[in-house]
Specification:
The chain is an alpha/beta fold. The chain is about 45% helix and about 15% strand.
Amino acid sequence: MAISRLRVVPWHKLRADLALPAIGRVLEGSAAERVIDRTLRTNRGLSRDERTALVEAIFGVALWRRRLQWHAQSTEPAKLLSSLLEDLAGFGGAKAGPQPTRLADRWSLPDWLEAHLQAELGDEAEAFCAAISEPGPICLRANRLLCTREELAGRLRLEGIETLPTSKAPDGLVIQHRGANIYGSRAWWEGWFEPQDEGSQLVGLLAKDTTTLDLCAGAGGKSLLLAATGSKVLAYDIDRDRLARLRVRAKRAHAEVEILDEPRHAETILIDAPCSELGTLRRGPDMRWRIDPNSLEKLPEIQTNLLATAARAARKRIVYVTCTLNRAENEKVAERFDSEHSEFHRTGTLKLFPHRDGTDGFFAATWERR
């Protein structure tokens, strides 16, 4: 199975002397993105093609390690890299050999994730695995406080960045060329957009109201979206460092977001809950290998407690969001809230999947106070 995107990488420019030590560190447990960043920073003289080949080599082995081990019958970095070039990229005219029959070998999954996806998705597991094995599109959200989506697209075009409108999110644009330097654009520095997956935009819009408390605001992607749509936004998070980042982002976006020291009553409470993040696996090539499956068991209780907090603070509505496909964190948590909080009734559920919708995977449930 040659991966089409790997066929166009300038492999002839690959610096194996830099790639192999970096791959070794990733296989030992270091995060691939950090290893790449450190490697590029210490080798600033690399050409564009050398950088591209190096990044694709590290990411490629990080993602496909199990598939490559199946082909190479080895865990040595050099042999895994050779298998990436020959068996998946078809470099040098190499012909595809036999294909793995087991899902975990074919799509490079840890055993626990193979079992989990088969249990959760059944016949759709294969399509989901194919979707998370390609990088997700780079999506932007036009900042309605400063521009329309059409105005942003026109301005980015003048800066050499081509986009297309998202199919569902009203303010979204998709970057057409992954190498585009969006963070070097004047539109970015002037606050005209925020990078945000289309699915994240869609679930965030569910919490639009006169006053919305973002109970797990983090660095504020959904808070900024809501502020741009006219909601009065209150933001709270137990991680104060992430809220500090929100202050900086809000200033750049010209957005009014009131950051709280304690949760407060609001018309709508948005819970962008901490979760297993299985819906975002395409965003990190080694993410599937870094998740502790034991952590999944602890999350539903945390999520249930957040919903109980929201029930006390919501004057009118609760919106519960995760970026996972794990039913224990989604449907089961929502059903428990239904049974324990008769003062609310569920008015809707939204599920998004990368293989069905082209977005990251999300679950959202909405309740109204009776």
